[in-house]
Amino acid sequence: MRRHTRDVLEGLLTRVRYEVLPTASVVDEVCAGLPSGATVTVTASPAKGLEATLRTAERLAAQDFDVVPHLAARMIAGPGELAELVSRLRSAGITKVFVPGGDADPAGGYDSALQVLTELAQLGNPFAGVGIAGYPESHPGISDDLTIQAMWDKRRYATELVSNLTFDPRVLSSWVRRVRARDVHLPILVGVPGPVERARLLRMATKIGVGESARFLAKHRGLFARIAAPGGSDPARFLTGAAATLGREDLSVAGLHLFTFNQIAATEEWRLAQLARLRNRTGVRPAAGVPGRGVS
To answer: Which of 48, 52, 54, 143 is 20 to 30 A from 243 in CA distance terms?
Structure first.
């Protein structure tokens, strides 16, 4: 492995955040598996409602984690509820959010992330960090032209762009370059799945709700197969394949967004093992440290 590639991978693996699902045990699992101060994003589940996301985010913030709750636009009833959510999160010391459209049927107030982002601006931009979604692969329900246009429309309200999953380094590299060619210059966090056990992934699908998991699997059968199949997903090989693009300073790739599927300890063990391997090759002593506090 070339020195440039090792340097790129080491840099990415030290600038990470971890996505978790708001299950009953996830706070304990985060506390046991991640260093204090790590950046943790909490998804929004239509089956559980936003309350589960907020409660999990508040508990993690109280444990000194850098928390980024998902405010899924279609799960918010309207401006009144959004103002209440903002007040509650700020009271918990939470300064960052991620705003997707979400897969739920609209609760009545919003049907797109752009509407929530606009409303947050009218509320005085209450969060220092605001993430929006990017789609290297085609979105299962939205055309590529619309996702690109939506990214352009949302860029001025956001501080970072978080890519959804792809397993093809060429697709990722091409997408990053196209984002910059569209004059979107937000820092990019590259979405990468951690090491996932098939049985655990199936249990997580059940926990987040039968209806939701059925919709997810119906839309992402190929994604599920790639993640869960033995040898089907190798995050290290994927990152190595994309390193030439991800390491370009002019493309502003800020770090990694690790989809843990709540296999938190395993994801962190994988990250540290990769860092140890890279650092041993360069003669640097492995060290754990606090990952990516400034990424989000």
So the answer is: 143
Predicted confidence pLDDT, tens digits, the chain (296 residues):
666 899 999 999 999 999 999 999 999 999 999 999 999 999 998 888 999 999 999 999 999 999 999 999 999 999 999 999 999 999 999 999 999 998 777 777 899 999 999 999 999 999 999 999 998 876 555 656 666 777 888 999 999 999 988 878 898 999 899 889 888 899 999 998 887 766 665 565 555 443 343 444 455 555 555 555 555 567 888 899 999 999 999 999 999 999 998 999 999 999 999 999 998 875 554 444 556 555 55
Q: Are 136 and 99 in contact (CB under 8 A)?
A: no
SS (H, E, C) the chain: CCHHHHHHHHHHHCCEEEEECCCCCHHHHHHHHCCCCCEEEECCCCCCCHHHHHHHHHHHHHCCCEEEEECCHHHCCCHHHHHHHHHHHHHCCCCEEECCCCCCCCCCCCCCHHHHHHHHHHCCCCCCEEEEEECCCCCCCCCHHHHHHHHHHHHHHCCEEEECCCCCHHHHHHHHHHHHHCCCCCCEEEEEECCCCHHHHHHHHHHCCHHHHHHHHHHCHHHHHHHHCCCCCCHHHHHHHHHHHHCCHHHCEEEEEEECCCCHHHHHHHHHHHHHHHHHHCCCCCCCCCCCCCCC
Model pTM? 0.86
Q: Which domains does the chain have, with CATH numbers?
A: 3-281 (3.20.20.220)
Placement of tokens 């951690």 in the chain? 194
